Amino acid sequence: MTDSSNQRFDYIIVGAGTAGCVLANRLTEDPSKRVLLLEAGKKDNYFWIDIPVGYLYTIGNPRTDWCFETEPEAGLNGRSIGYARGKVLGGCSSINAMIYMRGQQSDYDHWAGLGNSGWGWQDVLPVFRRSENYQHGADDFHGSNGELRVEERRVNWEILDVWRDAAEQCGIPKIDEFNRGDNFGNAYFQMNQRSGKRWSAVRAFLDPIKDRPNLTLLTEASVREIRFDDDATEPTATGVKVLHNGHEQIFAANNEVILAAGAVASPQLLQLSGIGASETLHKHGIATLIELPGVGENLQDHLQIRTIYTVENTVTLNQRARTPWGMALMGLEYFVRKTGPLTMPPSQLGAFAKSDPNQPSANIEWHVQPLSLDKFGSPLHRYNAITPSVCNVRPSSRGQISLRDSNPDSSPLIRPNYLSTEDDKAVAVAGLKFTRQIMAAPALAPFAPHELKPGAHLTSDEELAHAAGDLGTTIFHPVGTCKMGRDPMAVVDAQLRVRGVHNLRVVDASIMPTITSGNTNAPTVMIAEKGAEFIRQQHGH
């Protein structure tokens, strides 16, 4: 990597998270193109990032997390909740659950059906395969020559094996894996790990190219605004203003400025730069450059409802971690063999099903954990328990990201509007009832599960809907705030170019018109791969 003394580049990438790392890798393959990669967070040299269970110490930690909070949510009974976003090189891939989940065929075919040519399942499947390094080798659905390592779990729990049996008894069959287009069934999650260590976007895409002379990386570099050519007949992005080492600097882009800052920061930066709904911008004294009312709108997220059941006659993480001796043994197992509980993502086991038979495909997902706690970052409970969390993977609720004020350092207003539609409330209630059905299945009877949350005394739909508001929390999958499409609320076109502006693109999870069915990191890698293709094609790489 070169220094930034020459402040003109071919491409400026804003955000060195998942998408930014992929883009930096692909765009610097052409040695004639100079790329500047800007990250507002610090380097990823924090001890807990590489250890998979370290998410307990990175989420909610201002060293690695922006520690955003939502506004009070009516659907959550007036609660505000934490909204983790990676504040570190690698972005959320350095603090996330590591689950490799593409979504379903219907997700992408729906995108294409909205007029986004080239985004159907058959279009994106080869892109997923290209970047994948699959533990079991290449086949029709997986690739083995890519950078993104995908491996199986490295620890087993009896209670999870039995939960799979119970789900099967309730009509959710055991399957080998997800990611083949139809996720209906139950299986252990596959993860972005290599030999028991987190395999972030930095490890996969950035570390292998760190010595390319045409790449410049700056951390702790906060982009204040996008700059435009005032003399052009149409607005043209020419660079960015950046605060770095206490000084503001201007970096110029010959070809493009590419926003890869995520579903919270990308719309915020557009708004700070005069692109958005004029009513919102004027309220904060920002002149409107381009009227794009969809900027910051269409926010979608997966709300998980964390039920808790005590269990007997088996061992959970609550029990193993109860004593200093137990903690020491787990640490020893990890550092000697790279196996055991320290390799765990937040959830190891998943299941997909329909909340009702009229759904066209699986629309609810369980993340099952052999542990319980009040929230991530809190101590494990002293009793033996598991957490089968259920979420609606196709929510109809839509929220917003908007400016708090015109200060780039201010956190934005985050309003997910969870459970704001009757459909979402109905799916939440159905998910809780389905969870109870699984927990009451014969396979689990020897373990005497007892429902602590929401509590078996809550039986009516109204009570369960209220309980969903009490228990619901984000799985950190915000998308959609710079959505791709052709309608008046679309922010980017099918090649991810910002409408009405030259030389400006958004390439991250914010461009999803609708959220994918499951964890969103793998789709973000795919989006960045396609974005890099579009950029190279346009500029003759």
Major sheet attributes: 8 strands, antiparallel
Average pLDDT taken over every residue: 96
Question: How many domains, as an integer?
Answer: 2
Weakly predicted, low-confidence segments: none
Helical fraction: 25-40%
Strand segment count: 25
CATH topology call of the largest domain: FAD/NAD(P)-binding domain
Report the portion of residues in β strands.
15-25%
Q: In CATH terms, what is the architecture of the largest domain?
A: 3-Layer(bba) Sandwich
Structural class: alpha/beta
What is the CATH level 1 assignment of the largest domain?
Alpha Beta
Radius of gyration: 23 Å
Form type:
globular
Using brief descriptors, characterize the structure shown.
alpha/beta, eight-stranded antiparallel sheet, 14 helices, 25 strands, 541 residues, 2 domains, FAD/NAD(P)-binding domain
Put the structure in a nutshell:
With 541 residues, this protein is α/β, with parallel strands linked by helices. It is built from 14 helices and 25 strands.
What report would you give on this structure?
This protein is an alpha/beta fold and 541 residues long. It has two domains: 1-103 and 192-299 and 401-414 and 478-541, 3-Layer(bba) Sandwich (FAD/NAD(P)-binding domain), CATH 3.50.50.60; 154-188 and 303-392 and 417-477, Cholesterol Oxidase, domain 2 (2-Layer Sandwich), CATH 3.30.410. Helices cover 26% and strands 20% of the residues. It is built from 14 helices and 25 strands. The strands form seven sheets. Strands 7, 16, 17, 18, 19, 20, 23 and 24 form an eight-stranded antiparallel β-sheet that branches. Helix 1 (18-27) packs parallel to helix 14, helix 5 (121-131) packs across helix 14 (521-538) and helix 12 (422-439) crosses helix 13. The mean pLDDT is 96.
